[in-house]
């Protein structure tokens, strides 16, 4: 049992392996989780305008985890940033735990969507960006994290093809490239987004400064994609 002091103190990046280590049991999807760790940390630590206190604020940035079948890193980052109690982590995946093998937006504070089904997060992000535009809210950014294997799903390509011409410049997609896709894309992942009118860049998914520069790069009038390359899943 963690103490009140432990719960209230700020956790840093170096605490994440310990926080992830508190989650045990079957179906951890460890490689899928660790592939997202650095991207999630840089986003929540330096980019996203959302805090536990602002998670219901209409002006908050929205982060959608589409790659929801390996949520251990997501839960660790949410715990480090105070969205969920650290004491929840050891119960990961158990019957009465809010931290399921796939995140549930009703149970996990800070989670915008229930996720885990491949190919649905980016279309939801497009709809979210359109909804914010229709509400006259130009400031909130929409971020969605997908895996490269999700690009095997046609729903993502429909979303990509729509978002570019629609000029959804508050939409940002981070693709974790751990060489899991079944089908190669001509010219690479970034080229697929660029062909649809997106701004796109490919970076080292473990380099925090490179990630931050890519996340904050200007892209006026266009949605933005960041391809974060990490070690192959089966390496």
Provide an overview of this structure.
The protein is of the alpha/beta class. It has a domain of 162 residues: Thiamin diphosphate (ThDP)-binding fold, Pyr/PP domains (Rossmann fold). Helix content is 32%, strand content 12%. The protein has nine helices and five strands; from the N terminus they run H-H-H-H-E-H-H-E-H-E-H-E-H-E. A five-stranded parallel beta sheet has the order 1-2-3-5-4, with helices on both faces. Helix 4 runs parallel beside helix 5, helix 4 packs across helix 9 and helix 6 packs parallel to helix 7. The chain is globular, with a radius of gyration of 17 Å. The N terminus is likely disordered. Its cofactor is thiamine diphosphate. Keywords: Thiamine pyrophosphate.
């Amino acid at each position: 049992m963690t103490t009140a002091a432990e719960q209230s103190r700020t956790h840093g990046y170096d605490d994440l392996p310990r926080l992830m280590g508190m989650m045990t049991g079957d179906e951890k999807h460890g490689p899928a989780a660790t592939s997202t760790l650095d991207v999630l940390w840089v986003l929540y630590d330096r980019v996203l305008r959302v805090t536990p206190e602002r998670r219901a604020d209409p002006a908050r940035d929205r982060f959608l985890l589409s790659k929801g079948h390996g949520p251990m890193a997501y839960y660790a980052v949410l715990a480090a940033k105070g969205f969920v109690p650290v004491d929840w982590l050891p119960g990961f995946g158990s019957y009465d735990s809010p931290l399921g093998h796939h995140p549930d937006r009703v149970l996990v504070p800070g989670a915008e969507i229930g996720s885990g089904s491949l190919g649905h997060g980016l279309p939801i992000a497009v709809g979210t960006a359109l909804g914010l535009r229709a509400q006259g809210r130009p400031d909130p950014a929409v971020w969605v994290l997908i895996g490269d294997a999700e690009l095997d799903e046609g729903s993502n390509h429909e979303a990509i093809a729509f978002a570019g011409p629609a000029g959804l410049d508050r939409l940002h997609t981070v693709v974790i490239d751990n060489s899991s896709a079944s089908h190669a894309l001509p010219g690479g992942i970034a080229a697929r987004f660029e062909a649809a009118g997106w701004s796109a860049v490919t970076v080292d998914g473990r380099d925090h400064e490179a990630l931050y520069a890519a996340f904050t790069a200007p892209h006026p009038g266009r949605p933005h994609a960041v391809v974060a390359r990490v070690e192959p899943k089966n390496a």
